[in-house]
Specification:
It is a single chain. α7 (120-153) packs antiparallel against α15 (317-350), α14 runs antiparallel to α15 (317-350) and α17 (377-403) packs antiparallel against α19. It is globular and about 75 Å long. With 443 residues, it is mostly helical. It contains 19 helices and no strands. The chain has helices at 34-39, 43-50, 53-58, 64-77, 82-106, 110-117, 120-153, 157-173, 179-204, 208-214, 222-235, 238-248, 257-293, 304-314, 317-350, 356-373, 377-403, 406-409, 416-442.
């Protein structure tokens, strides 16, 4: 899988110019490893250099699907679903760390390990469902970015969708100059989203008391369950379960298990910071919607454009602008990350690589069809997130199986409590999906 040159973190960055002298170690000299040279720069610089993969993965946890589900959830049910957002982000931290851990320990991504360890029929089936999940992801990302362009500049939705594709290509082009520029670009866009909702929360001031009450688990209706499953689908996204292992594999070459342990400690910090920021954004998003829209007049608010209009009417143009800018940053960044994940899925599961232009064109077609037909974009966003929640167990179960196998992970095999928690997440999410199907068919 490649969009160009995907370099590892070098011990000493920079290529040697033609004709320049190269220092060759003397025979028997101890050559420091890449990690040792990185740590020699100082703890702060080394830590900053190691952060990044989780920030790329976390952008999928604040994609436009989160805007749709959180706005609808806050408007209709107030603060009641805050506990779902919190639970989903805690599950996300565990799941993304396990994916990153697999990449660091095995130097392979999850699809590659599945192809190596599972029967061919299973591998192809996994690839087909993963591609369906990729298209569902693109629906959310393209619709969100198109809505952001429409709200900010008045661009019609279909042309806005095409512009979104060009923006995604521009971000992906950074990959040709090494992964670090791509990571920094995605992190900057995450920062824009975070600052946008920090501004909203400070300006609007959601109720602290009601927010704390919302952290107590409970669901009052089938509609609440539908949105709860959508929130989980929008938060714990299957394509980044595959992607995170690709972001960490070989990023810092490790000589032995001691060095892998040190890299894993850095990655835990990366996950906690990045997913913590994503969780704060999601909780602020729902709490702000609960504060503004959970009223008899606005509880039925169901579209992102309507939410944008109400931000302007109730709070002012600054709040509406912050919402639209955050939405555009979310859609543009998550769209490029989704394409990256699609390449990982295809190359890993079936060892086939296609030009990124072809992949981008194929996976964006369903979203463009939604825009062309005129289906309510926000409803399509929520539905896409529910579809995504059905793909989570199909990615999470193989991850849980593989990371608890000593023949795969060696001394880094999961502890018993980690295995129990991972399987608990898979069972919980699967159970919610089955219950949702039952309620929709027979409730």
């Amino acid at each position: 899988m490649s969009f160009g040159r995907r370099s590892r973190i070098p011990a000493l960055e920079g290529a040697t110019a033609e004709g320049a002298s190269v220092v060759v170690p003397e025979p028997g000299a101890v050559v420091p490893s890449a990690l040792e040279e990185l740590l020699a720069r100082g703890r702060v610089r080394a830590t900053l250099a190691m952060l990044g993969p989780a920030f790329v993965a976390s952008i999928a946890y604040v994609d436009p699907g989160n805007f749709a589900t959180n706005v609808q959830g806050g408007a209709k049910y107030g603060y009641m679903l805050l506990w779902v957002v919190l639970a989903a982000n805690l599950m996300a931290m565990l799941i993304q760390y396990l994916s990153a851990k697999l990449g660091i320990v095995t130097d392979q991504n999850l699809p590659e390990v599945v192809r190596q360890r599972f029967p061919r029929a299973v591998t192809w089936g996994m690839w087909v469902q993963a591609e369906i999940m990729a298209m569902s992801t693109d629906i959310a990302e393209f619709l969100g970015a198109a809505l952001g362009l429409n709200l900010l500049f008045g661009v019609p939705l279909l042309p806005a969708g095409l512009i979104t594709g060009l923006i995604a290509f521009a971000i992906l082009e950074l990959q040709t100059h090494g992964f670090r520029r791509f990571e920094l670009a995605i992190t900057a866009l995450l920062g824009i989203i975070f600052l946008g909702f920090l501004y909203e929360a400070l300006r609007i001031g959601p109720s602290a008391h009601e927010s704390l009450k919302g952290l107590i688990p409970g669901l009052g209706s089938t509609g609440a369950l539908y949105l709860a499953v959508g929130i989980i689908g929008a938060t714990v996204m299957p394509h980044v379960i595959y992607l995170h292992s690709a972001l960490t594999k070989g990023r810092v070459p490790c000589r032995d298990d001691r060095e892998r342990n040190r890299v894993l400690r850095f990655e835990r910090l990366d996950v906690i910071i990045a997913l913590g920021l994503a969780g704060i954004v999601n909780m602020a998003m729902l709490a702000v919607a609960a504060k503004l829209f959970h009223t008899p007049a606005l509880s039925g608010l169901s579209t992102i454009p309507a939410a944008h209009a109400e931000f302007g009417r109730l709070v002012g143009g600054g709040a509406a602008l912050a919402f639209a800018v955050a939405l555009l940053a979310s859609g543009a960044s998550s769209s490029s990350v989704g394409t990256y994940a699609g390449q990982v899925v295809m190359a890993g599961f079936i060892n086939v690589r296609i030009p990124v232009l072809v992949r981008r064109a194929v996976t964006m077609l369903p979203a463009l069809a939604v825009l062309a037909v005129g289906i309510n974009p926000t409803n399509a966003l929520v539905l896409s997130q529910v579809v995504l929640s059905f793909g989570i167990p199909l990615a999470l179960i193989p991850l849980a199986m593989l990371t608890c196998r000593r023949d795969v992970m060696g001394i880094h095999v999961n502890r018993l409590v980690t295995t129990v928690l991972a399987w608990g997440c898979a069972i919980l999410i699967t159970g919610l999906n089955v219950f949702l199907i039952y309620q929709q068919l027979f409730g």
